[in-house]
Amino acid sequence: MRVHIADHPLITHKLTVLRDARTPSPVFRQLTEELVTLLAYEATRNVRVAPVQITTPVTTTTGVRIDEPRPIVVPILRAGLGMLEGMVKLLPTAEVGFLGMVRDEQTLQPTTYAERLPADLSDRQCFVLDPMLATGGSLGAAMEFLFARGAQDITAICLLGTPEGIAKIEEQVGDRDVTLVLGARDERLNEHGYIVPGLGDAGDRLYGTV
Ligand code: URA
Question: Residue limits of the Phosphoribosyltransferase domain (predicted)?
Fold first, then answer.
């Protein structure tokens, strides 16, 4: 598994404002979108392209365009939805699929409560959006769901991750083709399952339910 942790002052600056408990939802949403666009630059480094011939006002030349089959962007509901606009801004031709994950209170295992994805993902590059990689439970389950549909190339974009969550995903995916792109690796997970220092509950902060 490849792990890329952003190291850029613009990203750190935006994350700092995002972390601040006083930042209101509209600003939080805007910053999330901007951060995802910046992280998508790295996450799409290996997006498949095909050569094309074009004519400029001066001459003909070759360039590239995003190849078929189209990449697929998969926000994990609910908080991953806040990352969608920032991603499709950079990858407007991508297809969008949806995956809703919830933790079963009895078994404590994440289960899928909603999905809208193609049946066969074997030749698709998948970009999963999940802002908070905390325990790794829901992201890991989402990846297993995509693998079960044949996915062979998954990149996850998270705003924040913990060492515990990264290690869990690493162990789970083994030698499969997975890339994690993170805005920052935080210190740890606390006893309530929150990322420290973190930013609180990303869904609540995005949608104003605090
Ligand atoms: N999910 C969140 O939204 N925040 C955390 O800190 C951990 C998981």
Answer: 6-209
Quick one: which H or E segment has residue 35?
Answer: helix 25-43
Whether the model clears a pTM of 0.90, i.e. scores above it, the answer is yes
Task: Report the residue among 28, 77, 195, 196 best suited for mutation to probe ligand 1: largest number of ligand atoms under 8 A from its CB.
Answer: 195
CATH code of the domain occupying 2-207: 3.40.50.2020
Distance 19 CA to ligand 1 centre (A): 12
Residue 139 Cβ inside 6 Å of ligand 1? The answer reads: no
pLDDT tens figures, 135-175: 999 999 999 999 999 999 999 999 999 999 999 999 999 99
Total residues belonging to the chain: 210
* Nearest ligand 1 atom to alpha carbon 202: 3
Q: Could you read off the pLDDT of 177-200 as tens digits, one per residue? A: 999 999 999 999 999 999 999 999
Sorted by where each begins, the domain ranges of the chain are: 2-207
Handedness of CA 5, 35, 37, 122 (dihedral sign): positive
Query: Residue 31 C-alpha to ligand 1 middle, in angstroms?
Result: 17
- pLDDT by residue (tens digit) across 52-107? 999 999 999 999 999 999 999 999 998 999 999 999 999 999 999 999 988 776 77
Going from the Cα of 204 to the center of ligand 1, the distance in angstroms, rounded, reads 10
Distance from C-alpha of 39 to C-alpha of 42, rounded to nearest angstrom? 5
CB distance 147 to ligand 1 below 6 Å: no
